[in-house]
Amino acid sequence: MTSALKDTGTRxxxxxxxxxxxxxxxxxxxxxxxxxxxxxxxxxGTGASGRLMEALSADIQARGLKITPVCSYAAxxxxxxxxYRSLLD
Length: 89
Hints:
Layout: E1 6-7, E2 11-16, E3 19-28, E4 31-38, H1 48-62, E5 66-69, H2 72-80
């Protein structure tokens, strides 16, 4: 089971199978700068990071913000996403 997205103020987190995937971020004006996205080794290859990116992108879009990805995974995911590509800043 996947938990709801949690925003700590510096990190987005989602729990699956008792393990936490996360995206570290900073806020700069109307931008969320995603520095790093990571899933535990046991969740790698299951789509956990993609589900995290989808949830955090929906949250950021709802707040009317943009995303600046520093993390290469986040950048690649956003470029492939038709629904959230417009969030790229």
